[in-house]
Amino acid sequence: MSAKKIPFLAVDGGGTKSLCYFFDMHGQIRGQGRSGSCNYQGVGKEAAVRELIHAIRNALEDGKLVGNGEVGETELETDCAALGIAGLDTEYDRRIILALVEEALQYLRIRAKRLIIENDGFAALLGATNGQPGILMIAGTGSIVYGVNDQGVVARAGGWGHRVGDEGSGYWIGKQAIIHILKTMDGRVAPNKLAEHILPYLDLKDPEDLFNWTYNSSYSVEKVAELSSLVSQAHTQGDQVAKSIMIQAAEQLFTCAKAVIERINLYRQPFQIILQGGVLQNNAFVREYVTNQFNTFAPSGQIENKNKEPIYGMMALALDHYQKFHDG
């Protein structure tokens, strides 16, 4: 008995949520599903597979692409599956994630004639620029910059995670604030308003409590990233230390963008600039500072107020790969 044909499959597997679409040749969505994070670096391999299965199963059921109770029981076939998965930064990551994806598809009895796996930031770039020349700068909990030129050459900078990178991100800003509060206690930094904003938010009494908090189970990347909005509040009240942290954040972000622009010669042509993530969307000072840097260094770039979901980039990638294979 031949396998049941299903439409194309696209997945945006982010660090917070996963989104799955089944769609046809015309880009019409036939079924969609959501689940939690499938970033194996954050949730572990078993949980990553589980969430990926959950998102795909939900999409199959939403589109009634299989009958009741048939998910994982009926063999399915798709012409192309394109997945953008968080945590894919090295070839080592690629091998692990490929195995996780294959495990999920095998569990659901889905056979993909063509399987494409990319970093979720690359998916976001394609979704935001629609394949046209552009820069995508993301500064949320983490940070990364991607770029693509008119030849389709892609480059990235940053995005190496909170332990060794993510400069300019919400986490980085929050971490700098904590460092400066402790330095203030030592007398190494001039008096500032950071402690009076951050300590009450964390329900702490003094900088020593803050030190203890950073080394206990209450500490998390997400919680530290939340502190970035308090740094912004301190800045609006005239705090110069808070201002210096945000200037450094903006400069770090633009350094990544400059490196990408130079590597792919993007400044030689008109290109789009898409700014995404909570820091760039909600912190007007950082956004304006970065925008001014772009205007000075690369005036041919145009800031676009787009926020197209990354999954549309994976849909375009799946269709493009299928068309090339089919025409060939």
Q: What distance separates the N and C termini?
A: 28 Å
Q: Rg to the nearest angstrom?
A: 22 Å
Unreliable spans are: none
How many beta-strand elements? 13
Number of domains: 2
Structural class: alpha/beta
Q: Tell me what portion of residues adopts beta-strand conformation.
A: 15-25%
The CATH homologous superfamily name of the largest domain equals ATPase, nucleotide binding domain
Q: What's the CATH first level of the largest domain? A: Alpha Beta
Q: Can you name the CATH architecture of the largest domain?
A: 2-Layer Sandwich
Mean pLDDT level: 87
Shape: globular
Number of helices: 13
Order of helices and strands: EEEEHHEEHEEHEEEHHHHHHEHHEH
CATH T-level topology of the largest domain: Nucleotidyltransferase, domain 5
Q: Into which percent range does the helicity of residues fall? A: 40-55%
Strand arrangement, largest sheet?
A: 4-3-2-6-8
Keywords: Kinase, Transferase
GO molecular function: kinase activity
Organism: Paenibacillus germinis
Domain ATPase BadF/BadG/BcrA/BcrD type: 11-293
List keywords for this structure.
20% strand; ATPase_BadF; transferase; Euk-type_GlcNAc_Kinase; kinase; 13 helices; 328 residues; 5-stranded mixed β-sheet; 2 domains; globular; N-acetylglucosamine kinase; Nucleotidyltransferase, domain 5; alpha/beta; single chain
